[in-house]
Amino acid sequence: MSDKAIKTLILGGARSGKSRHAELLAESWEGPLTFIATAQAHDEEMAERIRRHQERRSDRWETVGAMLDLAQPLRDAATEGAFVLVDCLTLWLTNVLLAERNVETAISELVAAIGDVPGRVVLVSNEVGLGIVPENDLARRFRDVAGETNRRVGAVCDEVVFIAAGLPMTLKSPG
Amino acid sequence: MSDKAIKTLILGGARSGKSRHAELLAESWEGPLTFIATAQAHDEEMAERIRRHQERRSDRWETVGAMLDLAQPLRDAATEGAFVLVDCLTLWLTNVLLAERNVETAISELVAAIGDVPGRVVLVSNEVGLGIVPENDLARRFRDVAGETNRRVGAVCDEVVFIAAGLPMTLKSPG
Amino acid sequence: MSDKAIKTLILGGARSGKSRHAELLAESWEGPLTFIATAQAHDEEMAERIRRHQERRSDRWETVGAMLDLAQPLRDAATEGAFVLVDCLTLWLTNVLLAERNVETAISELVAAIGDVPGRVVLVSNEVGLGIVPENDLARRFRDVAGETNRRVGAVCDEVVFIAAGLPMTLKSPG
Hints:
3 copies of one chain form a homotrimer.
Chain A: E1 7-12, H1 18-26, E2 33-37, H2 44-56, E3 61-65, H3 71-77, E4 83-87, H4 89-98, H5 103-116, E5 120-126, H6 137-156, E6 159-164, E7 167-172
Parallel strand pairs in A: 1-5, 1-6, 2-3, 2-4, 4-5
Antiparallel strand pairs in A: 6-7
């Protein structure tokens, strides 16, 4: 395989089945599988959620943590013939904002990496901009940055799906 | 009619036209119509909303209240040839959580009932997981449980539609 | 052109690419372009956002402000052969609510104007009803009114699209 494999963005709400859908896409893949985890186990609730996600994935997956630097681990893993799942962009953005990193730079580096790598890439992200405008300044800024990230990542991906109630709606189809 | 009638989940946001869409589905039905109401008139705002919904429905409907136990009323009403509208799952979940009932058990019993009954069933539910993660613990737990419920009910239904601006997008089609 | 031009409602979340999509629709239009701006520069954040939007639009656009009275400016601008972009209904509704105007009357006048005018009309609106029910009374009322407005405007439009990650899903197609 000398062509680039397709890149997919999976968008959806809380507990909508985004990660399950992503893992389904990996099932028939014959090459190596890498899971890039952006979650930090800040509290018990999150630790439990990470544990449940790991249990669901088989031994076929190698797991890599990427709390802040996401572009380089993605470049390292998404080589020809490889399948890389990034779950999820929303937590990664939270980490970047809380660490007071330059978020524009971080997004640009991510978008460039997605465009460059030859491997199959699936990115999971939350849609968080469909509720009432939050009163909290940081929440409002996060909501804007998250919308911008989804739009820019969606533009560089070949396929974009929106998940609701565990079911996909196609926003963009490859080819 | 000896086959099971189809089951439909109608998902959408606040005032998106979910209930109207559900009532439209009932218009051409020739058998008995049952409305299973999960709303409690906690305050004036809710009492007024319930009253408006009732006015819109014709005398053809029998109304049954189901604040906490939903599976059994659904089994009782959704007999062969009957049409049952459950409006809505989100309020029912709120009732179950506030009453400190076991929410996993409640959802499992509901999903089993939907799968078993021979009648036509239409369930209305709010999508609440597409905004910013709420700071309030109970709200966050509710958001997760609501997402999980939509996914599990969606899996057992034959048809799932997402309503925005009064218009349906099909997520899952029967047959 | 003696027939009425089509009316389009563009719905979506924060920073989803709604305005960009609306501006794309105008690109191939050969007649006059009017931008009806409903935003008030309450603070620096908003002033900056308005400035960025203006920079993106070319000199081909005439800009009209419509903070509270929207129906009349729309009637004035959307003459035969003209293209009018209203951006956005959500901010306009906020203005109407904060000014304690009669919101039902305002919506009815807007819907009547959209139905009457012969020009091409594109309206941008936020979907805000897909998050957790807000605790704040005004926010809850706003959420309900916004949902109702989207439904009523969607009903009078020929085309309704939902934007996520910069990509359109068609809810209603003309003809």
